[in-house]
Amino acid sequence: MSEKGPENEPAETTKVTDDDVVEDPQDSAADTDRVAEASRWHVALREITTGNALVAVLSVFLAMFFGSLMILFTDADVRYGMSYFFARPSDTFIYAWEAISGAYVSLWRGAVFNDLGSTFHQQIKPITETLKFAAPLTLAGLGIGLTFRAGLFNIGGRGQMLLGGAAAAFVAVKLDLPMIVHLPLAILVGALVAALWGGIAGLLKALTGAHEVIVTIMLNYVGYYLVFYALTRKSLLQAPNSGNPKSSPMPESAILPDLLGPKFNLHAGFLLAVLATFLVWWILNRSALGYRFRAVGENPAAAKAAGINVGLAYFSAFLISGALVGLAGVNQVLGSVTDGATSGLDAGIGFDAITVALLGRSRPFGILAAGILFGAFKSGGFFMQASESIPVDIVLVIQSLIVLFLAAPPLVKAIFRLPSKEA
Amino acid sequence: GGEAPAERAGEGNSDYLPCIVSDAGGFDDKSFNQLSYEGLKEAADEIGTKPKPVESNSENDYAANLESLVGQGCDTIVTVGFALSAATIESAKANPETEYVLIDDAADADFDGKTDAENIKPILYDTAQAAFLAGYVAADYTKTGVVGTYGGQPFPTVTIFMDGFKQGVEYYAKTKKKDVKVVGYEGGEKGSFTGEFVANEKATNTARQIIDQNADVIMPVGGPIYQGALTAIDDSGKDVALIGVDADFYETDPKTQDVVLTSVLKNMKTSTNDVIIAASEGDFDATPYVGTLENDGVGLAPFHNFESKVSETLPDEIEEVTAGIKDGSIKVNSYLAK
Amino acid sequence: MSAVATTVKPEGVAERVPGLWKTPSVLGVFTVLVALLVLISPRSGDSTFRWSRQGDWFSIPDVSLPANAVVWAAVLVCLLCTAYAAWNAYAGRKSPLLLVAVFAVVAVAGFLAWAVAGKTLPVVGLLAGSLALAVPLVFGALGGVLGERAGVVNIAIDGQLLFGAFGAAIAASLTGSPWAGLVAAMVAGMLVALLLGLFAITYWVEQVIVGVVLNVLVIGFTSFMFSQVLSENAAALNNPPHFPRWEIPLLSGIPVVGPIFFRQTVLVYLMYVAVFLIAWALYRSKWGLRVRAVGEHPKAADTVGINVIATRYRTVLLAGAIAGIGGATYTLVSVPSFGREMTGGAGYIALAAVIFGKWDPIKATLAALLFGFASNVESVLSVIGSPVPSQFMLMLPYVVTIFAVAGLVGHSRAPAADGKPYRKS
Amino acid sequence: MRLALRDITKRFGSLVANDHISLTVEPGEIHCLLGENGAGKSTLMNVLYGLYQADEGEILIDDEPQRFKGPGDAMAAGIGMVHQHFMLIPVFTVAENVMLGHEATGFAGKLDLDAARKQVREISERFGFHVDPDALVEDLPVGVQQRVEIIKALSRDAEVLVFDEPTAVLTPQETDELMAIMRQLKESGTGIVFITHKLREVREVADRITVIRRGTVVGEASPEASNAELAALMVGRPVELKVQKSPAEPGERALVVSDLTVADEDGQVHVDDISFHIDAGEILAVAGVQGNGQTELTEAMVGLAPHVEGSIKLDGREIVGRSVRKALEAGIGFIPEDRQIEGLVGNFTIAENLMLNRSYDKPFVTGGSLNLKKLDTFAKEKLAEYDVRAPGVSTLAGQLSGGNQQKVVVARELSRDLRLLVASQPTRGVDVGSIEFIHKQIVAARDAGVPVLVVSSELDEISALADRIMVLYRGRVVGIVPADTSRDTLGLMMAGETPEGSQA
Ligand SMILES: Nc1ncnc2c1ncn2[C@@H]1O[C@H](COP(=O)(O)OP(=O)(O)OP(=O)(O)O)[C@@H](O)[C@H]1O
Ligand SMILES: Nc1ncnc2c1ncn2[C@@H]1O[C@H](COP(=O)(O)OP(=O)(O)OP(=O)(O)O)[C@@H](O)[C@H]1O
Ligand SMILES: [Mg+2]
Ligand SMILES: [Mg+2]
């Protein structure tokens, strides 16, 4: 996904050219000279067929196709139809069509627009849900993408989210303050604690050269048990009167406000994510700090020789990354699931965010777009499961296939027999 | 699709729609999610309807899943596990027309002793009572004088088993003046936990360590983790007996038949079934239900293959203890006991 | 002209090198920690260590010692080790690894004596369990080492373990034979490896991306199949027979050693073979030379006529098969059925072992064993009752790994072309 | 064996790297290929060696057309190559490197290392090399590494040997020895293709010379042609081979280095108690075989070396113990020895690379934020001033040719107010045209009063730039001598011998 985001994908044009290419598969790769002399129309066609936009569309298409196969082979009706396939093959096809279209239509209804809804707010609610789920994915994705740009792998999203969320919850439930102070304070403390937690990996890397992949993975577990411990102590996080490892619900004064009123679940966490996107974009592309992150990420030896403190860059990248990932945890506790923090508050987002960062190519707006896409899958998945009884796990399969195909344009082009740019 | 052949699976004639949401364990957890779902399915078959089950993978999913189910027009929604409590209360308040059944939690977030929404029926089980009996049986059965237990995570719904078990053993030791020791649980949250409700090497290994402490009865509490104990028992080459939890393992998992001494029953299947049947007939009753020995909500499974191996007097003694617990002359402490 | 020795090492210069002080510092920290245990919370009673098991040729008697005394003795030895390490550092020498090993054993013994005061610690069970817990990690790490030695970073170990477990469960259930399950596990691991190869080797996709994404793909696929297919036909598809324990005659009777190493399942014996075979082949055989060449400097390998792409594919597939065996331990040894996400991220721990073990099969195996040991200390202590809250005990293996990586390993050098796709024009 | 290339064409996308090139190599002949950076020499040789497939044309051996699918086929046909960037595996031993690809094995694929050791010893003896078969390649000096490359080729019975810039990293003595080896090979009937940028060498050994420019053969030159003629033919214009430079007018004592000792992480000492000084407006050139402490010396000057003792005083202020950033802020410009590794960020644009050492403060950073406009203007200026051949300032540095990359580094380092310039191998692998330009810039800096420390393993470069010459051997100063010291004397000093009359 490019820096500019998905809005420059010419969906209409691609369709037309797509057909053209299919009709003319001979127009293949080897023919460099001919293309060089070809008409402007040909040049434009070539630009589109070799461009990223078409590959993106086709990647999604391919991933959905494989998802369909899985649905087909496990759908009870389709299998039933196949049992008498030779007697009445049409049934199999009808069932197959029902299964697949049912799945994707419900995915759409759950993610974007529900035409079955009786009121307007019910109809457009799915898109707001999508944005709600996109917020933590984007925040954590930004954090992880930022470390990627600095040449680091932050696999520690889970731990950072847990610590950030738990710290925010602590401030929220233990203090009694007016909202104007309480909410910002809880957010800040959450981000800060997560930043320090992430910073451990950066510090150890800078001081001892410890491989950050190991350290962050280990810190996930350590963080999990720490938070779990806190949740079993009344003095720390556990709700009074309860034996469950869960905190009290968040007080009103520390809850991220709703963006579209009480009828929708979309809360200010999404605003936080959008702001963070701009902030990270600024850091990476316009700030000296971000310049140094990128320099260190691309060539640490050259950066060092040019006077950049590489260890400090590692440490500060992890601090910022931890803070962003921590905000995802804060978003969960103070926004999405406000009835109390638990040791499951990360909800797998810390890992999903790695994929989001990869899909967004570690570019801030790419990550925002990828976060929204994944949020849509998430939100649509619930609807699909409820209406079609298809396990949401299929969404994982489709998501990961999209990322893989997007990362390998030549493969997609080979599958669809498109010309490749570097003929 | 209306034009489908009549034999097509699961099509019914009632328009009553029962639904169920699992917690993060999913419906294959060999524990409360699975049993509640099975109870719901049976009820649905009896009524002639097709239930809608949805699984949650994380706590993110609870509210969204409930919302989708409401959108699907469910009449009754069963939510399984304390983790869904808050989401259930919220959904119930927003949808007063829909009926909710919450398993394993009182739905009392404000701790005023009352259910927070009138359309939620909380179902709880004082499994400590039944586990007490199991502890008594184990203490009687053991030859080494050591019995063990371990859990998935120190949640109250887990430790309540271990707690009751421990009290049962201690009661036996005191009344019979026999030295019997419990390993793997010391009370509160102190004990042996695998950290996850997953059948894995950690579960197997924990069972191994318990057997290594000379235990010859072992009670794993936490869905599929008992499968680890099966492997450990098999590997040890010793005569170690297993005590099942939730359902009668002898029936739900034939692989356990040679080793299962008895099981601590938590009759979620029956309770769910009953509530759904009643609800389908318009008799939804939101009063909280606490399963006890008294109302057969919890109990002890038969000894099956072990009938000949336990002491002859044991069945009568169990009767006696049961009566004692019922009439209150024997106290079993748990977070649910008044 | 002769090969000029370009660097000379006069006496007395190296003492300026601060890296040498890392070892004594870490040892010092741990010495203090052990001492703090008894200072803050002295224990009463004896700690008993049990060494024997049924079936030993002869039984070593239990050893009972007063807990506090043992801990203090351990602290003393630790102090001596630390002092020696510090003296070495002062003299500009690196401390021998043996010193660190002695220190570790003594410090652990001190901690255990403290923790089991008044109770009995089954030493053999502790060690045998450590080995069992480490088996999938060792296979995973071996797969990781192989792949990376050939220049392909394998983050997908977790996916290979999980898919191996999945494949093994189905095939063994269908055929009724754990051996068929083992083969299926290898094939499953290879399938994931094939995808890794396709994207990483043929299409030059960033290898970390491919690995992470393949893990998600496998989780999604197996979970989907689990709910849609396996759990509905559990008796037919998810009911694998398991490998029995094979006691090796004679060897298994040796006290302490026998029950730990020679009363295991066939997969453990396979693991011994795999570790030594891979370690040998990697450094001593033509195959290994070529694999390492391709991972260090693929272009150089190409210029002497080695087919880089094919070598990488073959190695990655082999690595996948090995990781697949690790996956088989979940469903053919540990528990008798497949469960959703049942590897619990073990592949990532195996990956840590690869790096911790500096891309060496033996060292990676030791790293995995260390992890297994730390996990099992937690299990054993929680069963016999420990003075530490369970969450902190559960943290132990991870904290130990961080200390080990930061304090003892530090910079490690990956194969030079690790993670870099090979592109010819 | 007679080798012929006929009408070879090789394209990279739209770039035609080789355009219908024909070339023959007779047995017992040394055939030189000359051409500026990016002319297509390496590409042609890679085609010959089977690494690239030609788009057009054919390769003939004894008039038989050949099909090389990979280097394996080329080697089997008797072609060996010593690559510009060594194709050795650093963590392998010499024997392992030599046997790789045609390993002798025993039972179960067990490597027969003894056979490989024997082979290494045999070939070494034949040519008088002293190479330890069990030494790790990464521990060997480059000269020896190159011998390993030659042994590798000979161990496969190569009849045509290609040397791609083999002398770029050698000392004069090593170069002379290589020439002798080439002659010896030639005597035994081996055909040799020899690529170099050093005209002196060409005239010394070449039997025939082919000049390539922009992918096409522009003609053959006679080995008797003068340096100036050859250079002009290569570049397509007359080239100043020796930079015009007035005698130095040394000013104050700007840099004083005393008792400097540099050790690495393992405690090995690379610079051993050396002292010297440089005056403002003076160039001190450091000569020496690579690996005798030059790298560590330059690293210590900018704070890159981890363990430094002694003192480096610039304008009276101590540098030792300061961070790289502080050293650079004190006014040190640093041209590192390997532009790819330490000089440039390949995936950064030219403009971004130009601010690499100025990411903390003005002019490109204000209040923590980048001033992209200023950077753009600055980069455009420098692009024009330093004649960097690139489409624009947002071209990625990694896509430039070696010479142009070097110009970017030089432009960056010289565009600040310098108090000291440290230049390490400033023209390694750069063609004569670019050398001329870079030398001019360095001399201009000196003339502006900057003290300059130049490290080079290239004696031509040393004598072209130096006002005084310091020779390093095993981390110690052998002597500091005047610029007009003879090549022979310098060569001896580089081997560690202290000649008469030099001040140590
Ligand atoms: N793999 C490649 N892909 C694209 N372009 C390439 C590739 N290799 C070389 N080129 C381009 O081909 C041209 C010829 O390069 P080549 O390396 O053959 O030059 P050369 O004559 O060896 O130069 P030098 O004297 O610097 O070694 C250059 O413009 C170079 O940028
Ligand atoms: N795949 C490629 N795509 C684009 N440019 C390339 C590619 N491969 C090489 N080049 C360019 O071709 C140039 C020539 O490559 P080569 O490795 O032969 O170096 P060179 O020109 O000989 O440089 P030097 O003289 O520094 O050794 C490189 O500097 C690089 O910029
Ligand atoms: Mg209430
Ligand atoms: Mg070249």
Automatic annotation (TrEMBL), chain A:
Q: Is Membrane found in the keyword set?
A: yes
Q: What keywords sit in the KW lines?
A: Cell membrane, Membrane, Transmembrane, Transmembrane helix
Query: Any stretches that span the bilayer, and where are they?
Result: 53-73, 94-113, 133-152, 183-204, 213-231, 266-284, 305-328, 340-359, 366-384, 390-412
User: Known Pfam families for this protein?
Assistant: BPD_transp_2
Q: Where is this region: Disordered?
A: 1-34
Q: Which superkingdom is the protein from?
A: Bacteria
Q: How does it sit in the membrane?
A: Multi-pass membrane protein
UniProt subcellular location: Cell membrane
Q: Principal place where this protein is found?
A: membrane
Question: Which protein is depicted?
Answer: ABC transporter permease
Instruction: Tell me what organism the protein belongs to.
Output: Nocardioides luteus
Automatic annotation (TrEMBL), chain C:
Transmembrane segment boundaries: 26-45, 65-85, 97-117, 123-145, 152-173, 179-201, 208-230, 260-283, 316-336, 342-359, 366-386, 392-410
User: Which keywords does this Swiss-Prot/TrEMBL entry list?
Assistant: Cell membrane, Membrane, Transmembrane, Transmembrane helix
Q: Which InterPro entries match?
A: ABC_transp_permease
Q: Is Cell inner membrane found in the keyword set?
A: no
Membrane topology label: Multi-pass membrane protein
Record's superkingdom?
Answer: Bacteria
Q: Where in the cell is it found?
A: Cell membrane
Q: Indicate yes or no for the key word Transmembrane helix.
A: yes
Q: Which PANTHER family does UniProt cross-reference here?
A: GUANOSINE ABC TRANSPORTER PERMEASE PROTEIN NUPQ, SUGAR ABC TRANSPORTER INTEGRAL MEMBRANE PROTEIN-RELATED
Name this protein carries in UniProt: ABC transporter permease
User: What species is this protein from?
Assistant: Nocardioides luteus
UniProtKB/TrEMBL annotation, chain D:
Q: Where is the ABC transporter domain?
A: 3-239, 255-499
- Keywords on this record? ATP-binding, Nucleotide-binding
Key word Hydrolase present: no
- Matching InterPro entries, A to Z? AAA+_ATPase, ABC_carbohydrate_import_ATPase, ABC_transporter-like_ATP-bd, ABC_transporter-like_CS, P-loop_NTPase
Q: Where is the signal peptide?
A: none
Q: Which domain of life is it from?
A: Bacteria
Q: Does the keyword NAD apply?
A: no
Q: What is this protein called?
A: ABC transporter
Q: Which source organism?
A: Nocardioides luteus
- Tell me the organism's taxonomic lineage: Bacteria, Bacillati, Actinomycetota, Actinomycetes, Propionibacteriales
